[in-house]
Design a protein that fits this description.
The complex is a heterodimer of chains A (488) and B (1039). With 488 residues, chain A is mainly alpha-helical. Chain A is built from 22 helices and six strands. By secondary structure, chain B is mainly beta. In chain B, the strands form twelve sheets. Chain B has a 22-stranded antiparallel β-barrel. Chain B has a five-stranded mixed sheet with strand order 10-15-16-13-14. In chain B, strands 3-2-5-6 form a four-stranded antiparallel sheet, with no helix packed on it. The chains are: A mainly alpha (488), B mainly beta (1039). At the A-B interface, helix 1, helix 3, helix 6, strand 2 and helix 12 of A face helix 1, strand 27, strand 28, strand 34 and strand 35 of B.
Chain lengths: 488, 1039
């Protein structure tokens, strides 16, 4: 009797337990992330990649290269270390967050997403991808390229050689940067229903301008090959000249806009005026160069004169830096009013200098001096010099604005002008310096790092990649090892 | 609804079944009226009975004919109680002399005789915790518990305190133990507010939420150390559990007790580095009013234009301010008042309490203010159903100020050149210009007072903790109960930055609402039978079902670019895009568990448990997982009838346990996130105007995600000598963590930073020892010593194929990254180390500069894990006096100190003034052309200390060995004959001090800090506040 009554209760308990068990499957189905979407339209990826390549160009890599080419001099913290070749622990954020993990992977996502239905996005993404990869390989040399940005497929991306990245290597399955750009141009020419509008923050969806970007990229890549493959360089440039559809006016420049709003400012302003106003200033060496070229009117667009005169600092000097309030910092052309200057990636003045150099050393069509003068004028116009001032400069400085002497002398003139025009975009100036040796730069004071005897010819790989990728060169090449395309 | 009906009908059923019995209730207490839980109450001459609850109460159905009860409890003399016609029977037990036993509250609130346990626990009573100057209950445990490491973030008011039990057992999950209050799991989370760029790196020291617990209301704390102890709590207690029991109502005599307590203490900064007062502001011997260094001219130098002291023909004011740093740390105070009312009898009782604590910290503008009220009660409903519950409401306010690298109050103080007068023109009252802007002459920094008063973080936590218990004894040997608990809090935060603050020059108003709730329900059916199969074999069985749900939501509105100075409201912002976010999570768990405990003749014990969990966060095919445990205890002195005067008690014990843990929610799919670029030096965030930007999230989702496991093997012994005047509790454990859930770093060139995996293995081997000695005991005098020792050796065995190290998730600087590295203990800090010449073992020096060669990256810079820790508490009782003091000692472990770096590189530390005018030489060798020579290149002192003072330099890794006088307290109970006539139980006055002094032989600062507070990142002092010394007095009156 006793036993039976209890089993009844136990039975009820079991029924109760069973009831709870039965409802648990649904109860546990709550693991859907409400904080992050699992699919997105291409319209939100394109702004990410466009800002990404501009940010990568103008943030820490830009500062390091600007210090190495002595546009600026470091006064404190990282820039001061870069100035004397100390890069310990640097550039992870650039490699990771600016290039591979935001620009490159999302360009690839755009390409995979829409090459069939909306080739416009795919085409733009291929151009931006080519730009991002060129930036990486020009800075570091061998970098992950053909297997990069595809984490689900390649966990340990291979490091491709610089020559394979530029020229392709079908045997190794490597498409050249030139072919990547051409594939993008082909996509842009295809009809598609979905086209970018406001999400194309550079050209508001005008694909003809993107086509010019693609052709201009070909020029930029080709001129890098003057030392190592002039034949290819000449043929690419000649083709682009024949097509005549490249950036040939300041209004067509590929420049990524930023604004004055907090969080949307360009990195040059955000760094130099908001977060690290005391870290860097005008290099005494650039000031000396500008003085020697009588080019201080243009310099005043690049750098401020808080006390009326330029106040510069010698690279690597141990001496006490001038009072911060008096220092020449980046000026209106580069920061706008409060961070709303664009970051210029491909420009009309650059194209003119490329074509001048190509005419000179590769024998492509056109007159080097014409291109040279057009380049100077384009730069001076772009920084905001008055037409009268430009004319006055040309009149007063005929030896500066006219190519003369040997081919090498003339090339030095071209690259020196390009170097001045590129103030604020140290990466372009650093590329040209390593490829041509111009302008001639003296070592900073107190150099250190891997090799204190030469200005670094590349930057060191990042710790993050070195520690996680068994395919990374080990030990890493020192920063005095020249890149494939460098001046021998 | 159907569920409810079913349960309702079940609960009613027994009413018709036992009409022929009557119910006896009662409460068993000690002579002081304190409850005796876990006592056995049997109907005399039968095996039918029950045991008392936590509050000492019991309820028993007895046949009409039953005459008396047999009451027994470990440590107490057995008693027989005649029932007579009574239905409510208060029983007062008399203590057995000098026995070694105690009852402890274990998993699920089950009261157990400690002798029956096959694993280690350690219990602390209220008098070991309260009234000793601690505000946070975790701090009150410091130095007193074996197997536990506790380190406070800093002396900042409310700063979180890290606690790890038996080492770190999970790569990336929280390694803080589960906190359980009266059977209800509660949150001990630390919610961080990113105080502007870089804010979490030495931030405003937010609290761990155990801060909300009022120590005045705590009756006891039991620390369940290993997985075996905590297995019934399942996943949530994989890192051990802290079981807190609060004060309960119901005295045996039915009297109401009112305890009023009040204490007041003062706090001062303790252990500050010594500074030099010979050289002032400047660099290279030249005065510079914008410098944050003290490398200027010597005081008393003749002012010249060259040394910068003569400007415009006038000498600049230039003198030492010896206390300018130390005077910034102010005298703090803590006032703590509480009232606890306990009433009722054994059958129905209640407790009501309230407390109010206010702390003004040692940093300016830092406050903790905690108010709490609690009401609870228990009753036996219709003599059948036990019903109990309580509600606690807490309101905790905290104001914190920024520390850490970059512009912060603490860093600002550490960067005070020796000649800056913080009490003069830049003093507290005039730290700003007339228009409210920053008046500090040093660029990139604020006046420390400006940081403190213009850029604080305020937190306002409202927290409700509710519990409900319903229990029913189906039979004398079978009971069922349900316990429901809810812990929910909302932390409303406001972080402001005034316009012109160095960190956020355009100003910011950041409003953040952090909500967390945990719902926990346990159905427990337990049965107890004596003399099963054979005589003296007692069996207790338990089955249970657990339901757990945790929700969180953090909503942040970040208003940047303020328009109106001094108006801190979101409407004043010009931009809301940068940090405004929402993050919502929910995760659920269902658990099913069982426990079988066998006890033979009170000397041989065996316990088996099993638990199966189902978690919402794991892959559907892997979301159900089972884990068992087994433990055994053998009291060999009883079994072998050893009756020695020397060895009075001896037990050996062993256990094996496995605990599985689920994952954080939402790891199973690949997602996209809003894009942001850059860091604290330059950044960009979407939307760009009205254009949105998203990108692939940085983690690759796993194909499948299984739970992670911790398996623990433990052997231990409890020994009592000389009639238990000396007792030893020792344990050796080996814990193996496997199948860890973490995001392993993959090459960033994949386009992703990490991928989620199940992998890795880590071991913790440890020895813990607790020795208690009573050297002297007499009628009026008693001396007790309690000493503990802990040694834990952690080793990361493997991570993931091809991966030898990765950074612990959390905020850290690249270049000093707390890491998980194969072959190393958990948490080593990886950074750059200067290369050494292999022949001499000395650092190599660059022959051109006289400085060290370029540092090698990815080297182990420091190891935060101590070799061992010890604590010792002495207690003396003489008549009404009670004197206790605690010392603790930490041997080894290392700390990377940005604070030390600041003192050195900025020329403030006293040592930097020695021979400053002489040339210095870095110790090392110059290797060139195959020849090695001693470095003889002279460099200036500033350069020398600059090398020594690099923030992430190996020269700022210090041995954290420290000896500390942790606590001292002297209490006095007014003689009973004075108080008796006034209906006063006792009046107790006490004076106490906490963190009295420390001796760190190898560090010139207090190395016992951990700026990141509670969490897995340890061993970093990122310009945090110093520790505080507390001195106070307390008055407690019981009516």
């Amino acid at each position: 009797m006793f036993y039976m009554k209890f089993s009844k209760k136990i039975f009820l308990l079991l029924v109760g337990a069973g009831f709870l068990l039965g409802s648990c499957k649904k109860y546990l189905q709550v693991n859907v992330d409400p904080n992050h979407p699992t699919t997105v339209p291409p319209t939100v990826l394109l702004p990410t990649t466009t800002i990404g390549i501009a940010f990568a160009n103008s943030n820490d890599l830009g500062r390091a290269s600007s210090a190495l080419v002595q546009h600026i001099a470091g006064v404190a913290n990282q820039t001061q270390a870069y100035d004397v070749f100390n890069f310990g622990g640097a550039f992870d954020n650039q490699w990771n967050n600016e290039l591979y993990d935001n620009s490159i992977n999302n360009c690839i996502a755009l390409i995979n997403m829409d090459s069939a239905t909306s080739p416009a996005y795919s085409g733009i993404a291929k151009l931006e991808l080519a730009y991002a990869f060129s930036l990486a390989t020009d800075i570091w040399g061998e970098v992950p390229y053909s297997q990069a940005g595809q984490g689900a497929v390649y966990t340990y991306p291979r490091f491709d050689k610089v020559q394979d990245i530029y020229q392709g290597n079908p045997g190794a399955g490597i498409t050249s940067l030139f072919d990547l750009v051409k594939s993008g141009l082909a996509d842009l020419a295809k009809p598609g229903t979905l086209k970018p509008k406001a999400d194309d923050i550079v050209y508001a969806g005008d694909l003809t301008k993107w086509t010019r970007v693609g052709n201009t990229l070909l020029l930029k890549f080709a001129i890098m090959l003057t030392n190592v493959n002039p034949t290819l360089a000449k043929s690419v440039i000649s083709d682009v000249l024949t097509g005549n559809n490249y950036i040939n006016d300041n209004s067509l420049d590929f420049e990524v806009p930023f604004s004055s709003a907090t969080g949307n400012q360009n990195p040059i302003y955000n760094f130099n005026y908001i977060n690290r106003p005391g870290d860097q200033m005008l290099s005494q060496r650039l000031l000396n160069l500008a003085n020697s070229l009588n080019d201080t009117l243009r310099l005043a667009k690049f750098f401020t004169r808080p006390s009326g005169a330029f106040v510069a600092f010698d690279n690597g000097a141990n001496s006490v830096a001038p009072l911060q309030a008096t220092r020449s910092n980046y000026g209106s052309y580069l920061i706008g009013t409060t961070g709303n200057a664009p970051i210029r990636l491909l420009t009309n003045f650059q194209v003119n200098f490329i074509l001048a150099e190509a005419a000179l050393v590769l024998g492509t069509s056109g007159d080097a001096n014409t291109y040279y003068q057009a380049g100077i004028k384009a730069s001076m116009t772009k920084v905001g010099m008055a037409a009268a001032d430009i004319t006055a400069y040309f009149t007063a400085n005929p030896t500066v604005v006219t190519l003369s002497g040997s081919n090498e002398d003339m090339r030095k003139q071209i690259i020196t002008q390009k170097y001045v025009a590129w103030i604020g975009n140290g990466i372009e100036a650093y590329d040209d310096y390593r490829r041509t040796g111009y302008p001639v730069l003296a070592l900073p004071n107190n150099p250190g790092g891997d090799d204190p005897t030469v200005i670094p010819t590349r930057l060191p790989y990042t710790n993050g990649e070195l520690t996680t990728n068994p395919n990374a060169p080990n030990p890493r090449p020192l920063v005095d090892v020249k890149l494939w395309w460098a001046k021998p | 609804m159907r569920k409810l009906l079913l349960w309702g009908s079940m609960l009613l059923l027994p009413c018709f079944l036992f009409a022929q019995t009557r119910t006896i209730t009662g409460k068993i207490t000690d002579p002081e009226g304190k409850p005796v839980p876990g006592a056995s109450v049997l109907i005399k001459g039968t095996r039918t009975g029950t045991s008392t609850q936590t509050d000492g109460s019991f309820s028993l159905n007895v046949p009409e004919k039953a005459k008396s009860l047999s009451v027994s409890a470990i440590g107490w003399i057995d008693q027989e109680v005649v029932i007579g016609s009574r239905t409510s029977i208060p029983i007062v037990l008399a203590a057995k002399d000098k026995t070694l036993s105690e009852v402890v509250v274990t998993s699920l609130g089950i009261v157990r005789d400690k002798r029956s346990l096959g694993y280690a626990t350690q219990q602390l009573k209220a008098d070991q915790l309260a009234d000793k100057g601690s505000v946070n209950i975790v701090g009150a445990l410091e130095g007193k518990v074996s197997g536990v490491n506790i380190t406070s973030a800093s002396g900042s008011a409310g700063a979180s305190i890290n606690i790890n039990i038996r080492g770190i057992t999970s790569f990336t999950r929280s390694n803080q133990p589960l906190f359980v209050v009266d059977g209800i799991p509660i949150s001990n989370d630390v919610d961080r507010t990113n105080g502007g760029p870089n804010g979490t790196l030495g931030d405003n020291q937010p609290a761990n939420r155990a801060l909300d617990i009022d120590l005045n209301n705590v009756e006891s704390v039991n620390i369940l150390k290993g997985p075996a102890a905590a297995v019934l709590y399942g996943s949530r207690a994989a890192a051990g559990a802290i079981i807190i029991t609060t004060k309960k109502g119901g005295t045996a005599n039915g009297h109401t007790e009112i305890i009023a307590g009040s204490s007041y203490s003062l706090q001062h900064a303790e252990g500050l580095p010594k500074v030099q007062n010979q050289y002032g502001q400047g660099t290279n011997g030249i005065y510079n009013p914008t410098s944050s260094s003290s490398w200027g001219p010597k005081f008393g130098s003749t002012p010249t234009v060259a040394n910068g002291l003569l400007v415009g023909g006038q000498p600049v004011p230039y003198q030492a301010y010896p206390n300018n740093i130390n005077d910034f740390w102010q005298t703090g105070n803590i006032s703590d008042n509480s009232l606890v009312i306990n009433g009722g009898d054994a059958k129905s009782n209640f407790t009501a309490s309230g407390g109010f604590l206010k702390q003004n910290g040692i940093l300016p503008n830092t406050v903790v203010q905690r108010s709490d009220v609690k009401f609870g009660g228990n009753t036996v409903f219709r003599n059948k159903i036990h019903v109990g519950g309580s509600v606690t409401f807490t309101n905790t306010l905290q104001t914190g100020i920024l520390g850490g690298n970059g512009s912060s109050a603490v860093n600002g103080v550490l960067a005070l050149a020796r000649s800056i007068d913080l009490t003069g023109s830049l003093k507290k009252g005039t730290y700003q210009n007339a228009d409210g802007t920053n008046n500090w002459p040093i660029t990139g920094a604020d006046n420390p007072y400006y940081d403190a008063y213009k850029d604080p973080l305020k937190s306002n936590v409202t927290r409700t903790l509710g519990s409900l218990n319903i229990g029913y004894d189906l039979a004398p040997w079978l009971s069922v109960s349900y316990r429901l608990g809810i812990d929910a809090y909302t932390d409303r935060r406001k972080q402001i930055f005034a316009i012109s603050s160095a960190r956020v020059p355009l100003g910011q108003d950041l409003e953040s609402t952090i909500f967390r709730s945990e719902l926990n329900g346990d159905l427990i059916i337990s049965a107890h039978r004596s003399d099963v199969f054979i005589k003296d074999l007692n069996v207790t069985a338990l089955v249970g079902q657990n339901i757990n749900q945790r929700r969180s939501q953090v909503v942040t509105v970040q208003a940047d670019a303020l328009a109106i100075p001094g108006f801190y409201n979101a409407s004043n912002g010009g931009n809301f895009a940068v940090g405004s976010t929402e993050a919502t999570t929910v995760q659920r768990l269902l658990g099913y568990y069982g426990q079988l405990s066998l006890a033979y003749k009170s000397y041989l014990y065996l316990e088996l448990t099993g638990r199966a969990d189902q978690s919402s966060t794991l892959s559907p095919d892997k979301q159900t997982f089972f884990y068992p445990s087994a433990s055994a205890g053998f009291v060999f002195t009883d079994a072998l009838k050893i009756n020695s005067d020397i060895l009075s008690y001896g037990k050996i014990r062993a256990s094996v346990a496995k605990v599985g843990s689920d994952a954080p929610p939402y790891l199973l799919s690949n997602t996209y996130s809003k894009t942001g670029y850059g860091n604290n030096v330059a950044s960009f965030s979407f939307p760009y105007g009205s254009v949105a930007g998203f990108g692939l999230s940085s983690t690759i989702a796993p194909q499948s995600l299984a739970p992670e496991f911790v398996t623990s093997y433990e052997v231990g012994t409890n020994l009592g000598f000389w009639k238990n005047r000396v007792s030893v509790d020792a344990a050796y454990f080996n814990t193996v963590s496997t199948s860890q859930i973490f995001q392993v770093g993959i090459p960033p060139s994949t386009g992703f930073a990490t991928k989620t995996v199940n992998a890795g293995k880590m071991t913790n081997k440890g020895l813990e020892l607790l020795v208690t000695v009573t050297p002297v005991v007499s009628n009026n005098f008693k001396w007790d010593i309690s000493a503990n020792f802990t040694k834990i050796v952690n080793k990361v065995v493997s991570i993931f194929p091809g991966v030898t190290s990765f950074g612990i998730p959390g905020s850290a600087f690249i270049g000093s990254t707390p890491s998980i590295k194969v072959g190393q203990p958990y948490g080593v800090i990886i950074g750059n180390v200067f290369p050494k010449d292999s022949a001499t073992g000395l650092r190599t020096v660059n022959s051109g500069t006289g400085l060290y060669s370029t540092a090698l990256a990815n080297q182990v810079l420091s190891n935060p894990n101590p070799e061992y820790t010890m604590g010792i508490t002495n207690t003396f009782r003489y008549k009404g006096f009670n004197l206790g003091f605690t010392f603790d000692f930490t041997k080894g472990g290392q700390i990377l100190s940005f604070t030390a770096a600041s003192y050195k590189a900025r020329g403030a530390w006293i040592e930097t003034a020695k021979d400053r005018d002489q040339p210095w030489i870095l110790p090392g060798v110059i290797v060139s052309g195959g020849k090695t020579v001693q470095n003889n290149i002279q460099i200036p002192a500033q350069t020398y200390w600059g090398v020594q003072g690099g923030l992430q330099s190996e020269f700022n890794v210090y041995d954290a060995t420290v000896f500390r006088m942790r606590e001292i307290s002297l209490g006095y109970d007014l003689p009973a004959k004075l108080t008796k006539g006034m209906h006063i139980n006792y009046i107790r006055i006490a004076v106490f001090a906490n963190n009295i002094f420390h001796v760190a032989p190898n560090a010139f600062f207090d190395p016992e800090v951990n700026t990141q507070g509670a969490g897995n990142i340890r061993g970093l002092d990122l310009q945090g506040a110093p520790n505080a010394r507390t001195i106070g007095a307390n008055l407690k009156v019981s009516l």
